Amino acid sequence: MSVTSNASPQSVRPVLAGPEGELLLVRIEVPAARLETVLDCLATVPFPLNPELHHGHPRSAVEFPAYGPWLPQLRATLDAVGLGETTLSISPMLDVLR
Q1: Is-contact 61 1, C-beta < 8 A?
Q2: Helix (H, G, I), strand (E, B), or coil: what is residue 32?
Q3: How would you label 72-87 residue by residue, b for 16+ Cβ within 10 Å and e otherwise?
Q4: What is the pLDDT at residue 9?
Q5: Tens digit of pLDDT for each residue in 13-38?
Q6: What's the rounded Cα separation, in Å, for the pair 98 and 95?
């Protein structure tokens, strides 16, 4: 894992990067009744995830670190099971850790 800059010197933005690219924090918010569907969906992706659950009413959230190149597959998997209405937010992990 390393901290690198992927921008020109005028707009330097350090990133936390690993062998598969930038490390991000993914947050998926859904109605509490759909939480199990999200977890079942995430269990099918071809990369390892370590989700953290945040229970709430009426919405719950799942957060986990993921590499940038995983995002298209993650979005496609969520869309395939009808979770297009989910709130998916992505933040650079380095920003979250600060």
Answers
A1: no
A2: helix
A3: eebeebbeeeebeebe
A4: 56
A5: 888 999 999 999 999 999 999 999 99
A6: 5
